[in-house]
Automatic annotation (TrEMBL), chain A:
GO terms for cellular component: ATP-binding cassette (ABC) transporter complex. The lineage of its organism: Bacteria, Pseudomonadati, Pseudomonadota, Alphaproteobacteria, Rhodobacterales. Keywords: ATP-binding, Nucleotide-binding, Transport. Gene3D superfamilies: 2.40.50.100, P-loop containing nucleotide triphosphate hydrolases. InterPro entries: AAA+_ATPase, ABC_SmlMolc_Importer, ABC_transporter-like_ATP-bd, ABC_transporter-like_CS, Mo/tungstate-bd_C_term_dom, P-loop_NTPase, Transp-assoc_OB_typ2. The keyword Phosphoprotein does not apply. This is Spermidine/putrescine ABC transporter ATPase. It comes from the Bacteria. GO terms for biological process: quaternary ammonium group transport. Residues 4-234 form the ABC transporter domain. It comes from Pseudodonghicola xiamenensis.
UniProtKB/TrEMBL annotation, chain B:
It holds the Pfam family BPD_transp_1. This is ABC transporter permease. PANTHER family: INNER MEMBRANE ABC TRANSPORTER PERMEASE PROTEIN YDCV. Keywords: Cell inner membrane, Cell membrane, Membrane, Transmembrane, Transmembrane helix, Transport. It is found in: Cell inner membrane; Cell membrane. The keyword Membrane applies. GO terms for biological process: transmembrane transport. The keyword Signal does not apply. It comes from Pseudodonghicola xiamenensis. The chain crosses the membrane at residues 9-35, 71-91, 103-127, 139-159, 196-219, 239-258. Its main location: membrane. It is a multi-pass membrane protein. It comes from the Bacteria. SUPFAM superfamilies: MetI-like (SSF161098).
């Protein structure tokens, strides 16, 4: 399998940059997710790799070969389109065989590879059907088989799960991942859904307004977001405004959150993951500990989301794990102890409230 | 329950009435073509097939039929081919002046046929004065005029049918290794088929039955069937015309039925 190497890629539409100086690599059999809000340039970047977007500047290399100016049909990428883009007038077999035919592979060899590809996505019995005779999930698998049968150097997927039922997403996502790993496919996939990205990707690339804001493993990004935007985009975060002090962070409401603030510029915001805000007696002994009033409780089954109001007016949300036999009772209006470890307090660049 | 059956009944009644209204002229013409009387009278004194024999005996009708068929075929081939290429450009590409070009291509639909015919006639005469080539004395004048009708109809129908097509399918073909040309004839063209068939049918019928645009452009030996029938009407008032019309209705009906076997017409229009 190959690797993909993108350097300083730029795509401008007039004075608007859809992709703005992006550099990205994907190693052999690595699954990279491009994640970001709608309109941030993910699809444009993916389509540039496939060759459908004439890029303004920069370079795309596949296997060390510069493909930046190569026609889509000369690149040997395998793309799964968001709406699958199956050929409606051809049977499943013919759909899957199309790429082979274009490569001059026919007869028994083609039949064998088509059968294998369909078997791979458990659609062995559906070769003679037309796309419209298949369910959405089956169509997606045909699209996957069609892209993979030609042994692409790079496997590209645009929001592969977005057109599936919520119930199917998890299992199809895991199947895709297993397939990708067992075939050792260098893969780039686009999604705006963080769950999808966290579940499937080896490496996440967070994009915003055409630029990469941070990349890393799911754990790295979740635990050490580089900025408020990333912290807010991946999972939930409490955001507290205030100012950095030598001891930590002093909120506008006057609560002191102790943490390592050495060398931090003063204009940071503080974020705290709800699951790191601990409630009840266990919180009392923590370095950061305070009394707060329970403002609301949202019961979510395994967890409850508890909104606290701190004496100075700051609001924080905690995720509380519900356990049978737990002695801690939560009631709206009650005072409760809450606290967190200094390591859980993050002081981040504020790239959300300041003009961007 | 009560109201729903009643409204269903009303609905069906309206549909039957509408179809009846639409088909009435066809039925009436066909009926009259069998009347055994020189002048239109009702009830007819009897029925006969003589008018059909008479229609087929008219050399002008037979020649007109051949001319009309030839003109319609040529105008259809030219109109559908160029209309198809124009539609691909209009639907698949962004370029400057796109709307203007589309408007220009569809414009003949907005101009009364008689105006087009007169304008073309004047134009052809001026060309003839300048170059000595007179298009109105050959079938070419008619063909040129009818192409002005078959292009807009083709563009309109093919653009409409392509509007529902999804471009990513073509990209998928490119992604799988197909060149632009292979993608066109393996993917784009087959998916345009229904639009093209519809355009060809409409173009043929529009050209074949056209009267207004053609009326000034025919010449002896190059007279289309509708004009030949109009000329017959100047001196005769018998049901021969009804018989000729019945034959036309039969031919066009057969064309529609035959093409329905290849492309479901209900999906086309
Ligand atoms: N052909 C185009 N012309 C002009 N702007 C475009 C074009 N394609 C995409 N854009 C713009 O580029 C931005 C990025 O689009 P896209 O890559 O589709 O975003 P995403 O996939 O992340 O939602 C959007 O603001 C979009 O409006
Ligand atoms: Mg997108």
């Amino acid at each position: 399998m190959a690797d993909l190497n993108i350097r300083n890629l730029q795509k401008d539409y007039g004075d608007f940059s859809a992709v703005d100086g992006v550099s990205l690599t994907a190693g052999a059999s690595e699954l990279v997710a491009l994640l970001g809000p709608s309109g941030c340039g993910k699809t444009t970047l993916l389509r540039s790799i496939a060759g459908f977007v004439p890029v303004t500047a920069g370079q795309i290399e596949i296997n060390g070969k510069d493909v930046t100016r190569l026609a889509p049909n000369k690149r040997n990428t395998g793309m799964v389109f968001q709406n699958y883009a199956l050929f409606p007038h051809l049977t499943v077999e013919k759909n899957v065989g199309f790429g082979l035919e274009m490569r001059g592979i026919s007869g028994a060899e083609a039949d064998k590879r088509i059968a294998e590809a369909l078997e791979l996505v458990s659609l062995g019995a559906y070769g003679h059907r037309y796309p419209k005779e298949l369910s959405g999930g089956q169509q997606q698998r045909v699209a996957v088989a069609r892209a993979l049968v030609v042994n692409p150097d790079v496997f590209l997927l645009d929001e592969p799960l977005s057109n599936l039922d919520a119930k199917l997403r998890q299992s199809v996502g895991m199947q895709l991942r297993d397939l990708q790993k067992s075939l050792g496919l260098t893969t780039v996939f686009v999604t705006h859904d963080q769950k999808e990205a966290l579940m499937m990707a080896d490496r996440l690339v967070i994009m915003r307004a055409g630029k990469i804001v941070q990349e890393g493993s799911a754990e790295e990004l979740y635990d050490a977001p580089a900025s408020y935007f990333v912290a807010d985009f991946l999972g939930h975060s409490n955001v507290v405004s205030g100012k950095v002090t030598p001891e930590g962070f002093l909120s506008t409401g006057g609560t002191m959150f102790r943490c390592d603030s050495a060398g931090m510029p003063a204009d940071r915001v503080m974020t705290l993951r709800p699951e790191n805000l601990i409630l009840g007696p266990a919180a009392v002994a923590l370095p950061n500990s305070f009394e707060a009033r329970i403002q609301s409780i949202t019961y979510l089954g395994a967890q409850s989301e508890v909104t606290l109001s701190l004496p100075g007016g700051d609001q924080l949300t905690a995720t509380h794990q519900n356990r049978t036999g737990d002695s801690l009772t939560l009631r709206v209006g009650d005072m409760i102890s809450a606290g967190c470890l200094p390591e859980a307090v993050r002081l981040l660049v504020d790239d959300m409230t300041t003009a961007h | 329950m009560q109201t729903s059956t009643l409204s269903k009944l009303l609905f069906h009644a309206v549909i039957v009435l509408l179809y009846g209204f639409l088909l009435l002229p066809v039925v009436a013409v066909t009926f009259v073509s069998f009347f055994d009387s020189q002048f239109l009278s009702f009830p007819p004194p009897g029925y006969t097939l003589n008018w059909f024999a008479n229609a087929l005996d008219q050399a002008d009708f037979v020649n007109g039929f051949l001319t009309s068929t030839k003109v319609a075929l040529i105008a259809t081939v030219i109109g559908v081919t160029s209309g198809m290429l124009a539609s691909i450009a209009l639907v698949n590409y962004e370029f400057r002046g796109k709307e203007a070009i589309k408007g220009f291509l569809l414009a003949p639909l907005l101009v009364p046929g008689i105006v087009i015919g007169t304008a073309l006639y004047v134009f052809f005469i001026q060309i003839a004065q300048m170059t000595g080539y007179n298009a109105t004395t050959s079938m070419r004048g008619l063909v040129i005029a009818h192409v002005m009708l078959t292009i807009p109809w083709s563009v309109r129908l093919i653009v409409a049918s392509m509007g529902m097509l999804d471009r990513s399918v073509e990209e998928a073909a490119r992604n799988l290794g197909a060149s632009a040309w292979t993608t066109f004839y393996r993917i784009t063209l087959p998916r345009m088929r229904s639009g093209i068939v519809a355009a060809a049918l409409f173009s043929f019928v529009i050209s074949f039955e056209n009267l207004e645009v053609s009326v000034l452009l025919v010449s002896p030996g190059n007279t289309s069937l509708p004009i030949a029938m109009l000329q017959y009407l100047e001196w005769n008032m018998d049901p021969t015309l009804a018989a000729a019309s019945t034959i036309q209705i039969l031919i066009i009906g057969s064309i529609l039925l035959i093409s329905d076997r290849f492309v479901k017409l209900s999906q086309v229009v």
